[in-house]
Design goal:
four-stranded antiparallel beta sheet, globular, mainly beta, seven-stranded mixed beta sheet
Length: 119
Amino acid sequence: QVQLVESGGGLVQAGGSLRLSCAVSGRTFSSYAMGWFRQAPGKERELICTITWSGGNTNYADSVKGRFTMSRDNARDTVYLQMNSLKPEDTAVYYCALKRTVVTGYDYWGQGTQVTVSS
């Protein structure tokens, strides 16, 4: 059974940094990419960045570009989200998700980790 477990969330002041981790276990298949999503209260879930497993190619939403960096460790089956220059509007529950192929949606999801940025 595939499991994704996020960690690293918490409370930080504006301008600070946090690093989220997402560990994948139970995977017996190759997969295409991982994504980080976030959902703030009363708002829709937002895809903020993606990374491919093989080439490490990344894409970022405009809202986080230049402040957030996504990376992966293939040996550990783990992806990371380094978040710098955090703003109160970054407050949300952050989720990682796994995409098996380029044409499928995100098939597996973590439970989420809360990030709160105080002003």
